[in-house]
């Protein structure tokens, strides 16, 4: 247990402070522990910090709760992934409003090569259930991680289909990890931890208040390469997830539904307004996104080795896509993003995110003309 860890947990538990403000505080003070060591005059000068927040920090009211929470997490096998940690999900790290910490319980690789967010209405129809189960079945050859919200309807259908077919899945919660909501999904949440995880940004004991669900939806969008909306009314949490996905430059697909069906109006409207691509099959979506199946990846890796192109051997500790990018730059020197996309077969949207992550890690540098080079 380090002072910095406790300080981070205390900041999260301090009322009125969100993830953006916490980053601001740490940036100005030099660390989470230094925030609590700062005096009133220094705190009040930090943008976004008012009198009430500064006095709350000086009182360290959340410090004891943070220490208690740390001990409970250690006892119950809850992993804390802080945004400064190497294991923190890379897809979230580049987002301006990413969570300061992810509380995670289970066995999962958040940096899986392909991730799909599946969302939809709680009042799912038989059509919606069948479509969701079909999507999961068709995703299996692509070795994807499926992300959803553990809610009634489309979410739980997706999670349970993943469990049945052996596909890893993550349930992002609007509560603390010790407050399973809805309670009826507790057994499923336990089963998910064997090949997946449950995750949240909320401290232990947090109740699923109404306003926490939109924040939960941004994490689903942020963890996903692509979001598929199965069924949605004109208004609902799924459409909030879509808004976040678009802000984060994620791909969005929507399953069309029957005209006059209120539970398909949201999906049909997304397609009509060009806010989502029409979803028909996973194979067609994979073609759009230039995804490869597990067998194609093995074949391409073997061919790359024959051509003296060995990203995984040259760059240990990186994903296959990251290794491929680094190997391309090592071989070709400065490269434009379009050339990298063509040579690697990685979709431009996904490639831009990968390049940003590698830049944050100090591996590459961006140059004028959309060019990149190794450092």
From TrEMBL:
Gene Ontology MF terms in the entry: DNA binding
GO biological process, one term: DNA-mediated transformation
Helix-hairpin-helix DNA-binding motif class domain: residues covered: 9-28, 41-60
Family, per entry: Belongs to the DprA/Smf family.
NCBIfam families: dprA (TIGR00732)
Protein name, per record: DNA-protecting protein DprA
Gene field: dprA
